[in-house]
Amino acid sequence: MAESNYHHGDLKNALIAAGVEILAREGIASLSLRSVARRAGVSHSAPYAHFSDKQTLIAAISTEGFRRLYSKLDTALNAHSAEPGRQLVACGQAYMRFALNERDIFKVMFSGVLEQEKEYPEFVEISQATFQLLVKVVDACQEKGILRPAPTDLLATAIWGQVHGLVSLALEKQISHTVLDLHPLDEVLLFTLNQFSQVPLTL
Hints:
This protein is mainly alpha-helical.
């Protein structure tokens, strides 16, 4: 693939995609600007037009991942704007679908390979904005009595932690087939969310 084929930012996106593949399949030890260039089919010097080093590339990959996740969550929430309980379930479903459909970039986002996160303001902004979507839903559910009174940010963190744990188990195929044979993953997700609710949530 010739470098001259890229235009209007396509090179940067191609390098990010190549980085996701390498991280997900070969691990952090195999990631370098040189390996990304090779996988993208461009010259070894091409990545330096966009990334100064490996950490900058990882930050770009993680930032792109959170942008995609934010978009999925925002769409799900807007579909049930007048129903906080449905929003909470839809939010969980959107998070799970994103993880299962884009597992490579999802794993990178939460792998801990990005060092000194605060040095990348775009990453900080979108990751915090994504969390605030959940905080907003939790707050709306508390106002309606769907979720119990508690510090909203702590409750949102607890819910996220439980859903993320469930999704991680699903990604690693660690949920027993005897459970999944009886209960589809959406049902397991709903059961998880109902551990926090004061009124029954439904799909």
